[in-house]
Amino acid sequence: MVMQPDILPLTIHDLVITRGDRRVLDGLSLSLAPGEIYALLGGNGAGKSTTLFAILGFLARSSGTLSVAGTDPAEAPDAVRARVAYLPENVALYDHLSARENVDYFLKVAGTPRPRVDVEAAFESVGLAASAWDARAASFSKGMRQKTAIALALLRQAPLLLLDEPTSGLDPAAAADFHALLASLSARGVAVLMVTHDLLGAADTANRIGLIQAGRIAREWTASDTAPRFDLNALHDGFAGARAWAPA
Ligand SMILES: Nc1ncnc2c1ncn2[C@@H]1O[C@H](COP(=O)(O)OP(=O)(O)OP(=O)(O)O)[C@@H](O)[C@H]1O
């Protein structure tokens, strides 16, 4: 992965986004270093998805700054979307195409086709079984769809991965598989911003966990170098408080 050392994959400072008459994001600040895995948690309607859409350049901001690998999505949305890999809760693939054909197609559309050997190496590194490479995506589980999309992100050399509820609906083994995959992405220098309601999964995987409340990061926890990585009681109390606060 080629990255400029002094440019962070993501910097957000004092971001304000208004939807209707509400300041849905109200002074949100958040930066990610290469290889960092950040879990963003918060009650329903707290602004998690809004944060992801703002990073993708889909929402106008009232004030604040935001940059993805040094580029402002408000100024160059296409350049930012070319650098960010966004996985919605349910990854959409062309069902009538195989994993290989999907990846080839998206790379070609992006103007960055890659040789067969590279695509297979990416499938191997995300743990997509070889039997799936040429199978139609219609038969794929959520986990297989995610692996295909992450292989595409690796091939595109995206420095930032945005994940919306990646483990909802995954069985425990598939979720563990997914968390191991995130750790290997992190080791390659990919920064990951993961929106989730899975407190235990976040505590297993993330380097930092942030609680979004009233449109900003209200609390933040950093993983310890020694076990346990996070104080689960403190996390639980933090999130219980946020639920009690969340708007109806
Ligand atoms: N298109 C819209 N127009 C006006 N308000 C919106 C729009 N989309 C979302 N909102 C409001 O913005 C707030 C934040 O929504 P957002 O989807 O970011 O929350 P979230 O934290 O992702 O919630 P959830 O956990 O339920 O997915 C909510 O109050 C929501 O009602």
Reported CATH architecture: 3-Layer(aba) Sandwich
Rounded to the nearest angstrom, the radius of gyration is: 18 Å
- How many domains? The number is 1
- Largest sheet, order of strands side by side? 5-6-7-3-8-9
- Approximate shape: globular
* Poorly predicted residue ranges: none
Order of helices and strands: EEEHEHEHHHEHEHEEH
Q: State the name of the first-level CATH class.
A: Alpha Beta
> What is the fourth-level CATH superfamily?
P-loop containing nucleotide triphosphate hydrolases
Instruction: Classify the secondary structure makeup into a structural class.
Output: alpha/beta
How would you describe the overall organization of this protein?
By secondary structure, the chain is α/β, with parallel strands linked by helices. It has one domain: Rossmann fold (3-Layer(aba) Sandwich), CATH 3.40.50. It has eight helices and nine strands. Strand 6, helix 6 and strand 7 form a beta-alpha-beta unit. It is globular and about 45 Å long. The chain starts with 9 loop residues before the first strand and ends with a helix. It binds adenosine-5'-triphosphate. The site of adenosine-5'-triphosphate has 11 residues, from helix 1.
